[in-house]
User: Fold this.
Amino acid sequence: MPYPQSAKFQQAPLAFYETAEAELARVRSLRIEDPIAWQDAVNTSNALVDAVKENDLEELRRVMANADEGELIQAFVVQAFVLALKATSLEIVEQLVKWGLPLGDEQLAQGLHLVCELTGRENFSNAWRILQLLVEGNSEGKMDLNAPRSMDGWTPLCIACANACLPLVFKLLELGADPNVITRVNDTPVSLAKRKLPDDTEEQSEARGIIASMLREYGGQEQWKEALLFARRPRTVHVKPSKAELEDGSELASMPVAAQPVSATHTNYRG
Assistant:
């Protein structure tokens, strides 16, 4: 490869050391000047993606142990990360984060939104822990829990409220989600939670009122003008729902609602 392994690469092999444009230029040049090195980079990057796709943590570690600096192409790293999120694979995501995945990079900006879109009864235990990992971050940065999606201004909390996923709403609020964000069409988490949808289940319908009350306990306002006024005020003591300290799927069963599977989601993630 064009440069030897540095101390930083050994500590954070998945960190991005150059811009996407600079990397593309380097890889194109490498293909012409050193086809063998170029093929090594492609093979290593593909192996990374394949290991994540197969949820094979042992193989993933082997690939990373044998990787040289410059061989892990950013587009493949991003693809591997998205695959891990879609599978809500806690162990894989945790390992990627430990290897210095640059969570603050724009290419990964909608990771939290994607996890919230996919959160349901079966994967809740892994999903909220993944959210926590991404928000806490690593040496290369962290994800902003209140970052709006460019297409609609929705934050992860907006998704959870629209899907009437009570336990997810609670976890997001505990992680620091802003209950007074305002979307591009002037919706708020409270207004999204209260908005019943044609395909709501009985559990979701029941949860909407509970979620709205919970948001208000955190200072959430329904109308955007009031939300704007309250947005920066300090928060006070919060009321927690019954068995709110959810740690696994069995405890989730006692909650009055769970999110619908991704096929029934009410938002439109375009990752």
About this structure: The radius of gyration is 21 Å.
